[in-house]
Amino acid sequence: MRSPAPVLPAAVVALTTRDRARRLIRPAFPRKRGGRLVIVRTASELGRAVRAELVDAVLLDVAAGEEAWQGASLALELPGIPFLALAPWWPSDAHLLARAVAAECVELLAEGVDDAALSALVEPHRFTTRFAAALWEPPSRLGITTELQRAVWWSVIGRAGRPTTTAMLAEHFRMSREHLSRSFSAGGTPTLKRVMDLVRVCAAAELAKNPGYDVGDVSRLLGFASSSHLAATAQRLVGTRPSSLARLRTVDLMARFLEVQGATGRD
C-alpha cells in the first residue's frame, strides 16, 4: 500500500500576554510536527498574522484581558478559521464563558485540565484537517481509482491548496516526475497538474467565503503569484472569476471542472 504524504498543517496563532499560557501552548505545537506557532500580544498583531499566511486555528487566551476579546471580533470576519478560547475557567467565570460563545469560539479549552490534550483538541478544528476530510473521497467522475492515484490525491489535498509540484510528489513516492505524471493520468484521469490546480481553486473558494478576506488575501495565503494568477487559474479550470468562488460549493466546482475538462480536452 502506497502511503500518502501526511497532512501539512498550517500556522496556529495564539494571542496571549501571560507566561503561564505561553508555557502551555509552545510544547503543544512543536515545529517538528509541521506547521508553525505564532504568538502575538495584541489584536492588531493578530489581524496582521491571519493575513500573512494560511492559519489553521486561533487560540485566544481570554484570561489575558481585553486584547483577546478585541481579537475575538475577527471570528465573525473569518468564520472558516476556528477561534478557540483558553482560560482557567473558574466557577465565577460564567460571564466569560457566555462571552466566548457569543464571539463564536468553537471550543472552550480549560487551562489546567486540558493541558496534555491541547493539541488533540485543536486538531479536528484545523482548517487543513477539515479541508482534507471534506475532499478525502475524490469524486468518482475524476477517475481516481488506483492505489497510486488515490495516494497522490490524498497527498495533494493534505496541502490544502498551498503550492504543490510534481517534483515534490515524485520525491515522496520515489519515482521520476514523468513516471508519476503518466501513472496518475492513466485511464482518462485528468492530468496531475490540473488536479493540483483544481484543489488549489477549491481551497481558494473556501477561504473566499470568509468576509474578512479579499481576493488579494486569498491569493497571498495560498501562494499564488498574484490575484491575476488566481483569476487565470479559476477561469481556466472552472470557468469563473475569483469574486464568484465564495458562492460555489466544492461539488459545484467539481462539476464545472468536469464540464471544462470535457470541452477543452486534457492538457
Q: Report the span from N to C terminus.
A: 29 Å
* Overall 3D form: elongated
Query: What is the gyration radius calculated from CA atoms?
Result: 20 Å
List how many beta strands DSSP finds.
5
SSE ordering? EHEHEHHEHEHHHHHHHHHH
| CATH topology-level name of the largest domain | Arc Repressor Mutant, subunit A
In terms of structural class, how would the helical and strand content be classed?
alpha/beta
Considering the protein shown, what is the CATH homologous superfamily of the largest domain? Homeodomain-like
H/I helix tally? 15
Q: Biggest sheet: strands side by side, in what order?
A: 2-1-3-4-5
Any low-confidence stretches, pLDDT <50, length ≥5? none
Give an overview in words.
This protein has 267 residues and is of the alpha/beta class. It folds into 2 domains: 11-127, Response regulator (Rossmann fold, 3-Layer(aba) Sandwich), CATH 3.40.50; 135-264, Homeodomain-like (Arc Repressor Mutant, subunit A), CATH 1.10.10. It has helices spanning 19-28, 43-52, 66-72, 74-77, 94-102, 118-122, 127-134, 147-157, 166-173, 177-184, 192-208, 215-221, 227-238, 242-245, 250-264, and strands at residues 11-15, 36-40, 55-61, 83-87, 107-110. It has a 5-stranded parallel sheet, with helices on both faces. It is elongated. The mean pLDDT is 93.
